[in-house]
């Protein structure tokens, strides 16, 4: 019986990531502008010629206020991403902080959705080790 090499899960071409050279956030490899620090990363002459097809798939705005009675409080902003089966595929702490009495903080969560530029490779589900 020969040993089989281990199966690895490989991200499809549509989900490849890289670090932003400015802020070190993990961003999509296809991004021309970092969504975090908004620095321009590369010039894409094809993208510059076509209208932007990105749309905001979801946007939530909210405000929190320090509770009364007058005591300071802390907050933690966390985002969880789940697939169609409800399985958590990502969880990130976005920021933490504190508020003094009378202070408030406003938050905006936006999810932008954009089609891929250029040829579109077929999407394949990731392979699971041990399955045939």
What would you note in describing this structure?
The protein has a two-stranded antiparallel sheet. With 132 residues, the chain is mostly beta strands. It is elongated. It folds into two domains: 37 residues, no CATH class; 62 residues, no CATH class. The longest helix is centred in the middle third of the chain and has 5 residues.
Taken in chain order, the helices and strands follow as EEHEEEE
- Name the shape in a single word: elongated
* Binned strand content: 35-45%
Which structural class best describes the helix and strand composition? mainly beta
Q: State the low-pLDDT regions, or none.
A: none
Helix content: under 10%
Q: Count the helices. How many?
A: 1
Give me the side-by-side strand order of the main sheet.
1-2
Mean pLDDT figure: 78
């Amino acid at each position: 019986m020969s040993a089989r090499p281990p199966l690895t899960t490989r991200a499809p071409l549509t989900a490849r990531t890289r670090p932003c050279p400015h802020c070190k956030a993990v961003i999509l490899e296809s991004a021309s502008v970092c969504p975090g620090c908004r620095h321009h990363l590369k010039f894409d002459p094809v993208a510059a010629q076509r209208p932007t097809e990105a749309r905001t798939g979801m946007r939530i705005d909210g405000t929190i206020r320090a509770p009364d009675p007058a005591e300071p409080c802390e907050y933690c902003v966390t985002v969880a991403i789940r697939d169609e089966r409800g399985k958590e595929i990502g969880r990130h702490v976005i920021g933490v902080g504190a508020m003094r009495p009378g202070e408030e903080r406003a938050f905006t969560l936006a999810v932008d959705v954009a089609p891929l530029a250029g040829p579109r490779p077929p999407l394949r589900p990731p392979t699971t080790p041990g399955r045939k």
